[in-house]
Write a structure and sequence with these properties.
By secondary structure, the chain is α+β, with helices and mostly antiparallel strands. The chain folds into 2 domains: about 80 residues, no CATH class; about 80 residues, no CATH class. It is about 40% helix and about 20% strand. The chain contains 4 helices and 5 strands, in the order E-E-E-E-E-H-H-H-H. Strands 1, 2, 3, 4 and 5 form a 5-stranded antiparallel sheet that branches. It is elongated. The protein starts with a strand and ends with a helix.
């Protein structure tokens, strides 16, 4: 199964610190094996619809193998290998994503004046290059305005924006 994997610069796992073997040309990276235990071990990946929850500096296409479990907000497998880096996720896409999320946040603050501080914080953090924080702030403000379903709806909007911008399959 093909999925998405987000990593820190240099193909490093954001939580584990594990340096993933990267592809060499058209040859995929080596398989990585681990016992699949949610949030503890195994190969964690996501689908395009889950991407806003996991974004990091690098976005990779990954092949998952062995036992694969679909969890609420991620995929878990016993093995995986990186196939290719998705270069469309670059500094420009990150800035555009943060700007789009700030627009959503400012609209929410206009509709719900009690959320004005979120929009102000969003503008400030975007100015300092913290685009992923703005996306989270937009989702949290949506939740405060409309509950858990509104949080999920905002993250779904973000996922659709990313899928279109990065030409990802849904």
């Amino acid at each position: 199964m093909r999925a998405l994997k987000t990593l820190r610069p240099g193909a490093v796992g954001p939580f584990s610190g594990f340096p993933w073997p990267t592809p060499a040309g058209d040859v995929p990276g080596a398989w990585v094996h681990a016992d699949p235990v949610p949030c503890a071990s195994g190969v964690h990946a996501c689908r395009a619809g889950q991407l806003p929850l996991w974004l990091q500096a690098e976005l990779w296409e990954i092949e998952l193998g062995g036992e694969i479990t679909t969890l609420d907000r991620k995929l878990l497998a016993e093995r995986g290998r990186l196939l290719r880096r998705l270069d469309a996720w670059d500094a420009g896409a990150l800035v555009d994503y943060g700007t789009a999320c700030l627009g959503r946040l400012e609209t929410l603050a206009t509709e719900h004046p009690n959320l004005g501080g979120y929009a102000e914080d969003g503008r400030e953090t975007l100015a300092h290059g913290e685009e992923l924080f703005v996306a989270l702030a937009a989702a949290r403000a949506a939740e405060l305005a409309g509950g858990a379903d509104a949080y999920d709806a905002e993250r779904a909007w973000q996922a659709a924006w990313l899928a279109e911008r990065l030409a990802l399959a849904a």
